[in-house]
Design a protein that fits this description.
Low-confidence stretches: none
Radius of gyration: 18 Å
Number of helices: 6
Strand order of the largest sheet: 6-5-4-3-7
Largest sheet: 5 strands, antiparallel
Distance between the termini: 40 Å
Structural class: alpha+beta
Helix content: 40-55%
């Protein structure tokens, strides 16, 4: 049975999670599980303790099977006293990172694949606005307007999270 996580969190945590969900095209449950898995073993800061002025909203999601396998160990590793405290600490650390660093954490596999394609300098087939085009990937840059990552290619540019490689 999947473990349910439900707790009040500072509203800013929920807002950043929703923004990232929209940008990455994933559900909040998927994002929360990814953040727990990928940040649970990293040094964490209890930023949520500094957000006492912030309105609280309920956050609720289920731990996925993959996350549950590691959750107890993450709990022990962080000397957690409760699920709510652990998850708030992980999420508040995550949301205080710049968007491109959050994207690097969540889109790690895709980013490594695209970096490999950049080194190989192959022409690849990508999907852009519902059309399949051939393009050479040129570089990955942080967008100065949004702070998310963009992939520059010979036909234009796309956000990393929106870029679909059809064939290399």
């Amino acid at each position: 049975m999947r473990k349910k996580i439900k707790m009040p969190v500072p509203k800013i945590i929920n807002e950043v999670l929703e923004k990232d969900c929209h940008h990455f095209g994933i559900t909040k449950e998927k994002l929360c599980n990814e953040v727990i898995l990928k940040m649970g073993y990293k040094p964490l800061i209890k930023y949520h303790k500094m957000m006492t002025f912030e309105e609280k909203v309920d956050l609720q999601f289920n731990l996925q099977v993959e996350t549950q396998k590691y959750y107890k160990d993450i709990w022990k590793e962080n000397n957690a006293t409760s699920d709510a405290e652990l998850v708030r600490t992980i999420l508040s650390t995550y949301i205080n990172l710049s968007p491109f660093l959050r994207e690097k954490i969540i889109m790690d596999t895709k980013l490594r694949f695209i970096l490999e394609l950049l080194r190989e300098k192959h022409i690849v087939k990508i999907e852009v606005d519902g059309k399949i085009i051939e393009a050479e990937l040129m570089e990955i840059l942080r967008c100065s307007e949004t702070n998310y990552l963009k992939v520059i290619h010979s036909q234009g540019e796309e956000y990393l999270s929106k870029l679909e490689i059809i064939r290399k």
